[in-house]
Input
Amino acid sequence: MKYKAIYLCLASAIGVLGGCKPHQEAPAPVPPKVEVIAVKQADVPITREWVGTLDGSDNASIQAQVTGYLLSQNYKDGELVKAGQLLFKLDDRTFKAEADQAAANLDQSKARLKKTELDVARYTPLAKDDAISQQELDNAIQANAAAKANVAAAEAALAQAKINLGYTNITSPIDGIASISNAQVGELIGAGRGDLTVVSKVNPIKVNFNISEQEYLAFRRHYPNAFDEREGSANKIVFELILADGSIYGRKGHFLAVDRQVGERTGSLKMQVSFENPDYLLRPGQFSRVNAVVSESKGALLVPQRAVTEMQGTYLVAVVDEHQKVSIVKVDPGALHGSDWVIRKGLKAGDKVIAEGTQKVRDGISVTAVPYQEKKKTADATAPTPATTPKGS
Output
């Protein structure tokens, strides 16, 4: 019985041991697959972009100079008009009457002048012969002088009456596009009423925008003679216009003018650029973006925009080292260049950054890195990107 009990205990122990499986460790996670690209180094032009407003190269406010009833509008709203073309016609009967009255007054003044001239001519020899007093001759001379002044005043009054009569024909002083009329036929209009219409010369058309002092200095350093007023000296700066729908205008613009001073409140300068507009696509008042190359960055470090992640104003890039380990690096981005971003600090040429798969990684993990696919890069480059520096840089 004693050995039987020992045997049963051993058998039970062996059974227990036989029923237990050995402990197995969890399999290591598979490193995520990411696509990397080497940081490039190249000399690149630095482009800046501004928001601008289009305006006519010349704008003429058409207003009434005299008061009268509007008889007719002689142009079609929104059409191209020529300098001297009749736009509005006012009732001119009152002004014709005033001109006729002024002409009659002039004739009377001329008749009086003729009489005083005859008096002076007749009294002069008589005074020499003491046939009349010197006082009578002096009076005739003074009357002649007064008559000459009256004639001059009457001529001026007639000229003013003719000017007022001419104001009843309201014409365009320039070639351009006339806006929709603000007046109605039959309305009594006069000086101080405001614009009846506005005529704008839109070919060429100009864009107004503001540049900072820093951008102005960058312009001057990159284009030393950019703002020289001599003919042809400013054509080195070429501007590109981006319309409200994101399309790029087909013609390049050239520098037109820069304001004389920096705004005390804004710290900016007003700048104007001119664009040819032969098909009148561009109209005053349109908002657009304008960009231009303002400088060149020598040996700039370039990475795809998609490789840079912004988190609350901080810009991060995931770098993969030779051991396939990831490091999250803070960078200081500069201007955009095409589909790439210029990196001023945080990277060096040749570093491999993750361009596809950044959402899969964190600092310190291992990855399986493969080259970034060109087809994805090409598709990414087709999206329009503003040539601006990041906010706060």
